[in-house]
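We emphasize that the prediction below concerns an isolated chain of 181 residues; any contacts that depend on oligomerization or on bound cofactors are therefore not represented. The input was used exactly as deposited, without trimming of termini.
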Amino acid sequence: MQGNLERVLFDEPAINRRLDELAGQISNDYRHRELTVIAVLNGSLIFMAELLRRIQLPLKLDCLSVVSYDGKAQTSGEVIFKQVTLPDVVDRHALILDDILDSGRTLAAIREKLETAKPRSIRVCVLLSKKKQRARDVVADYVGFEIEDEFVVGYGLDFMERYRNLPYIGVLRKELIVQPG
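Result of the prediction step, given as a token string:
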């Protein structure tokens, strides 16, 4: 599968070092408080599992399933929530975990929905943040790595549900991203 990549951006040891740093920062920021973590499915699953094992806090975990790419290389612009009910964040400290901050649409929509439940606080943690102008004004409180505006896969990130299981993050070759007419 590595032959389908232009290059590897972050290998497994680099990701593990950064996860240790993020977990330490989150544990310190929420010291003496319980945290509710909301993982955005499916892309954040590997990131969530590896990060949460490192966080030394009492926490609750919930997941949200949303669609904005729907098998394409670019977001459709529409965020569809697949659940009827939202995670319970009433009067709680909530941390949204997502794989990548790209257009900002998904994280903005999730944050807006969760704010209606009146949490004590909401913060956002992403594995990757693209250096680009966003369609929605979203800033992540915790960022694993900043990357250029390239199509990346691995460590939970996919293209057409493939490559999620790679233990590293790489740039997918452009000729593989071409969408049929």
